[in-house]
Amino acid sequence: MSIDTLTPPAGLGFELSEDHNMIRESIRDFVEKRVAPTVMERDENCEFPHDIVSELAEMSMLGIYHEEKYGGAGFDTMSFAIVLEEIARWDASLALTVASHTSLCSAHIALAGNEAQKMKYLTQLTSGKALGAWALTEPGSGSDASNMKTTAVRDGDNWILNGAKIFITQGSVGSIYVVLAVTDRDKGAKGVTAFILEKGMKGFSYGPKLKKLGMNSSDTCEIYMEDVVVPAENQLGGLGQGFIDTMKILDGGRIGIGSIAVGVARGAFEESKNYAQERSQFGRPIGQNQAIQWKIVDMGVSIDAARLLVQRAAWLKDNSRPYTKEASMAKLFASEMCTKACLDAIQIHGGYGYTKEYHVERFLRDAKLLEIGEGTSEVQRMVLARQFMK
Amino acid sequence: MKISVCIKQVPDVSAPITIKDGTLSQDSDRMVLDAYSASAVEEALVLTGAHGGEVEVVLVGPDKAKETIRKALAMGAASGVHIHVEDMSGLDSAAFAEILAAWHKQSSYDAVLTGKQSQDTDAGLTGGMLAWKLDLPYCANAVGLTYEGGKFLVKRQGDTGQEMVELESPCLVTCSNDMNDPRIPSLKGIMQSKKKPVKTVTLDDLGLSLDGVKGGVVKTEGKGFKDVPGREPGKKFEGDPAELVSQLVNLLDNEAKVL
Lengths: 390, 259
Description:
The complex is a heterodimer of chains A (390) and B (259). Chain A is α+β, with helices and mostly antiparallel strands. Chain A has helices at 18-35, 39-45, 50-58, 77-90, 92-112, 115-126, 242-278, 290-318, 324-353, 360-370, 377-388; strands at 132-135, 151-155, 158-169, 176-182, 192-198, 204-209, 220-231, 235-236, 280-281, 284-285. Helices cover 51% and strands 15% of the residues of chain A. Chain A is globular, with a radius of gyration of 21 Å. Chain A binds chain B through residues 18-19, 21-23, 25-26, 29-30, 33, 58-61, 64, 68, 73-75, 79, and chain B through 32, 67, 70-71, 74, 184-188, 190-191, 193-194.
C-alpha cells in the first residue's frame, strides 16, 4: 500500500483550552496597553525595550513552556505560539526577542543541559534576570554546519573557544549564550558541540549593533571569541551532539517564527480592514470596492491557513509526536504568506502605506526577516523535499 | 483581613451588540470581567497585599461565568464563590442584592467591595441595596481606599469634588474604575488559578428560589430596547473666511441660540 506523505500525522485533534484563551486575553491586553503605543518610536530609534522585556518577565512570559521547577510558567508550545502571535501583531521585534530567548537559547539548555546547568542558567533565563542568545550562524556558514569555523579545543578542565558568530539576536543585551563550535573537524556535523558562555568571560566580546532593514528594536550583532576559556562543566549536551540538538531546537524555533508571521500578517490584515472602511474615494469607502475586498479576504483566508499549520505543529510538539515536517511547512507557508499580506496592506493604504505614519510599512520590513531567519525558505524547501521524497 | 468582592460577568463592550425583535442580541462567547468589578478586585488585592489577608470573589451567574471567576483568581484572589443561576433573564439589581445578601449573611468579611455600577446595565444600584440589606456602613463611587486601625478611609468622587469618608469595619464600598489600573494576570497567576478553590452555591443552599426572587424581589420589568437614533449630519461651509465667520456667528446666535 502506498503511503500518503502529505497527511499523517495530521494532528487535527487540537482545540484551544480555557488556559489558552486566558493567556491570549492577558498578553493582548498587555500588548495593547504597553507595547503598541510606542512601537513606532522604538523602530525609528532602533531601541531595545528593556523596560517592556522586564515587564514581560514579571508576567512569566520569558519561560512560557519551561518547567516550573526551573522558574518557567509550565505551559505548552501552543501557549507560546499564542503569545508570540499577539506580541507580533504590534511589535515583531519584541516577539523575535521573546522567541529567540525562549525557543533557542533557553530551549537548548532545557533540552541538553544537566540538572546543575538548568538550575544555574535556565532559572536565570526564565525569570528574565538574564537574556539568552543562541549562536550558530557564522559569516561563512549558516545552515551548513560542516563549514563552521568556530573551534573548541580541550585544555585540561577547560575548553578554549575561538571564532566569530554573526546575526546573533540578543548579541549585546544577552548575558547567557549558547555557542556551537567544532570539536572534531573530521566528523563533520557530528563533530560539533554546544557550550554555555557568559558575558564577561575573558576574550568574549560583541560587535556594534547591525543596521537592518527591519526588526529594528531587536538586538542583533556579531560575537567574537578569542581564546575564551570555558569550564568543561559548561559543555552543553554530549560531545559531538551539538548539531543534532541544534536540528531539534530549530524545529521548535520554526513554530515561533511561524507564529510571529501569523501575528504580523494579522496586523497587516486588521490595519487594512480598518483603513479600507475609513478611507473614502469617489464618495465611498474604498472597502466597498471589490478589488480591495478581495485582497482583504485573501489575506484573512491565508492567515487562517497559516495559523492552523502553526497550531498543528505546536500541538504535535506538545503531544511528543514528530513535528519536523509540520514545523517546516508552517514556517515556510506563514512567512511567505506574511510578506504577501504586508505588500497587499501597503497597496490598500496607497501612498500613506509607503510612509512611516502608518504601521504597514514597518510590517513589511519586519516580515522579510521571517523568510530568512531560522532557515531560509529555500532551506525549508530542502528539508521538506527530503521529507516528501523519501 | 478578608475582603469579599462581588464581581460580574458582562458582554465585551468592544463586541458588536445589536437589537433584534426588541431584545439585545449579543455574541455570547465574548463575555468578560466587568471593568468596575476588576477595579474592585485590584483594590482588594492592594489592601490585602499591604495589610495581609485574602480576597474572595463572589459571582452570581451561569456556568459560563466560572471563567470570569478564574480571571479574578488569576489576578490574585485566593478563592471564589459561584452562586449558580443558569437563567439570568428578568433578574434586576434588587434580585442580585437579595442573592448576594443571602450569601454574605452566612460568610465572614471585613469589607465587601463591588463595582460602582456594571458595564452591562450601568444601573449602579446593587451595591447600595446590598449594604442596606446587610445593614453595613456604605460609601459609593470610591476613587481611593486605605485601612488603618480597624477603619476604612474612603476617598469618594462626588458631583462637586472629592470627600473623605471613614467607615467602621465591616463595611461596603463601591469602586470607580478611576480608582486604579487593574493588573493583567501573569502566566503564573493563570497557572495558579487552576488550583484555587471555587465553591459552587445554589439558590436553594441560600434558602432562596428563582421563582421566589423573580416574584417577590424583582421590581423592574424590561420593556424592550431601541436603537439610538444616529447623529444628524453637520453643516459644511465653504468660501471666504470673513464671510464664513459672520455666517457662523449668525447661525450660532439666531438658530442655535447659544451666544
